Amino acid sequence: MANPHGFDLVPRDVWGARAPKSPEVMKNPVPYVIIHHTYQPGACNTTEECIKAMKSMQDFHQLERNWSDIGYNFAVGGDGKAYVGRGWSLVGAHSPTYNDKSIGICLIGDWRYELPDNKLLDTVHKLIEYGVQIGKIAPNYLLFGHKQVREGTECPGDKLFQEISLWKHFSSTPPTVWSPNKNSKCCREIEETKVKVPPTAESLSWRRLHMSRAKLKATSTTSELLSGFAMIAMVELQINEGTAVPEWLFVMFSVCTTVLVAVHIFALMISTYILPNIDAISKLDVSELVSESPHERMKGFIQLACAFSTVLGLFLFLVEVAILCWVKFWDYSFTAAIAATVIVTPVLIIFVLFAVHFYHSLVVHRCDTSVTDLEKLEDMKKHLDEASSPV
Ligand SMILES: [Zn+2]
């Protein structure tokens, strides 16, 4: 059992492990090592006690939690021995989102207020070193305490955490923090679900809700900005006495400004009515409410607001800029006005082409998603039929 690195690595058959139910291979070398404590069972000091602790953990994870196996890749006991859990190359169940790229090492015991023996800590160091040497852990690996990658856990206990934060490979900045819905006791992880959840009518509705919300937000920002700007342009425009600007240009300017403001205000009106409802529901995250949300009933209005604000509204704004240049510069310089028009015209053409292209591809995308939505619904129906039909 002893290896050249001077610690005992206890194989599964020696501690009497049951076979894993659904082992999943992990790619080595892994970039992370994550340290845990058990909290319960408490510290073990003899091999007999440690084996008992290993068995009780496996029972809990495999039988009660219905996981594949004991969650950790390794556990280290107060007897100074390392016990093989899932081992070097199987995905563990100890730190969601990190399970498939880390070795989870559990130090058996509750290490909130006291530190494990040096014997135990030594073995942890040797185990990691050994993992690096046999190519299972990357030489430049980063080491974290469990609570750094998951909110709402004390694991691996304050005292032990202080200790590991002095270790050479410890990193104070884990790449991502996984936040659970509910806080749960340390080290008893929710294994990541590998089963793909079939989409439900509800999840599709949520997707549409988030889409509508994003659309309305974009609409209101654009409209606020552009209508405000157009109003200021009109109010601040200074007209000289005895100006040579023809009346029809003033008429064009005022018509364009008013239509522009009206279009944006209309879009704003729709989004200010609907957005708070949708926002509230998406924040509450209560599934019954999604059917009450106005985004399904008022789908047409949302599309209309979006089109008004982002297509017609933007188009009118560009026209407005061109007209404004003519009104402003008529008396001084035709060249300035012509220059502005020369610039605005191609921009307008590009804008129209882009809008057409964008809406076209959006429609194609929508058709595609409608087809897949339909297929999903049919799938659901089939499942329901199968479930309800007598065998
Ligand atoms: Zn933990």
UniProtKB/TrEMBL annotation:
SMART domains: Ami_2 (SM00644), PGRP (SM00701). The chain crosses the membrane at residues 248-275, 301-329, 335-356. GO terms for molecular function: N-acetylmuramoyl-L-alanine amidase activity; store-operated calcium channel activity; zinc ion binding. One of its GO terms (biological process) is store-operated calcium entry. SUPFAM superfamilies: N-acetylmuramoyl-L-alanine amidase-like. GO terms for cellular component: membrane. Keywords: Immunity, Innate immunity, Membrane, Transmembrane, Transmembrane helix. Pfam families: Amidase_2, Orai-1. Residues 18-157 form the N-acetylmuramoyl-L-alanine amidase domain. The keyword rRNA-binding does not apply. It is found in: Membrane. Residues 7-150 form the Peptidoglycan recognition protein family domain. It is a multi-pass membrane protein. The keyword tRNA-binding does not apply. Peptidoglycan-recognition protein probably involved in innate immunity by binding to peptidoglycans (PGN) of bacteria and activating the prophenoloxidase (proPO) cascade immune response. Binds to 1,3-beta-D-glucan and PGN. PANTHER family: CALCIUM RELEASE-ACTIVATED CALCIUM CHANNEL PROTEIN 1. Belongs to the N-acetylmuramoyl-L-alanine amidase 2 family. Belongs to the Orai family. This is Uncharacterized protein.
